[in-house]
Amino acid sequence: MFSRTCEYALQAVLFIAMRHDDGKAVGLTEIAASLDIPKHFLSKILQILVKNKILHSVKGPTGGFFLAGSPDQITLLEIVRIMDTLDIFERCGIGLKECSDKEPCPIHNDYTKIKDRIRSILTDKTIAQLCDDVRNGIAIVSLKKA
Fold first, then answer.
1. What is the spatial distance between Cα 112 and Cα 134, in angstroms, rounded to a whole number?
2. What global pTM score does this model have?
3. Domains in the chain, ordered, with CATH?
């Protein structure tokens, strides 16, 4: 549903947020290695997130990335909007150009319900909630063994 770029952005923000309480910036190399994301590609993604004020970056030997705001104020929808735009919620489920409530495609009504539910999840879920779910053992984050 989301581009690889968007998936990597979501993963990276979650990874950085899991270390938010440490007060230290998380290095690009650590993020890339832990999440098994190509470092050069990840660097571009993180810079987009810095430009859009999701992250801050610090240069130097102790530099890296950290959240620009509180994790309970960053929704998943905000990251998806930055990385992929929200046109995924406007497109037809089978790709027809002319599909609407008045002139629906064969899956329009069912697909609209699914898109609305996904939008709701992305709007309601914050990075803090994801971190809490991981810390409480409700969810897991698979990391590559360094």
1. 30
2. 0.89
3. 4-135 (1.10.10.10)
